[in-house]
Design goal:
Blueprint: H1 2-25, E1 37-47, E2 54-58, E3 63-67, H2 71-77, E4 89-96, E5 103-111, E6 114-117
Parallel strand pairs: 3-5
Antiparallel strand pairs: 1-2, 1-4, 2-3, 4-5, 5-6
Length: 119
């Protein structure tokens, strides 16, 4: 009986931990959709990795960490790793993070004249 309860408790803990991790990853409420940003700058760093690709965009006012879509979605929509090369000009439209002053979530990216919706 004790073993059965311990097993049930272990499963419940595992489910709660998984739910918390999923909730933390998809916390888009951390971004303020009432304040859209439209930034143009130069890519100074980029990562094409899960769960989300990112780039560091040097805009005229300051540098931003831009959270992009997962690489698989980026590929399907035509944004390849090669397009995010350092030194490339890019335009991103999205929303600023509510508490991280240099971070934004991109809804759309334009590189080399090609505009792609990321969400």
């Amino acid at each position: 009986m004790l073993t059965r309860r311990a097993g049930a408790l272990a499963i419940a803990v595992a489910l709660l931990a998984t739910a918390a991790a999923v909730g933390a990853h998809h916390g888009w409420s951390g971004y303020d959709s009432s304040r859209p940003l439209d930034l143009t700058g130069v890519i100074r760093e980029a990562g094409y990795e899960h769960p989300h690709a990112y780039l560091r965009l040097e805009a005229p006012e300051k540098a931003w960490v831009v959270v992009l879509a997962p690489p698989s979605r980026m590929e399907r929509r035509g944004v390849t790793r090669e397009m995010l090369k350092v030194g490339t000009a890019a335009r991103v439209v999205g929303y600023p993070h509510r508490t991280e002053p240099d971070e934004m979530r991109a809804e759309r990216i334009t590189i080399n004249g090609k505009t792609v919706e990321l969400r």
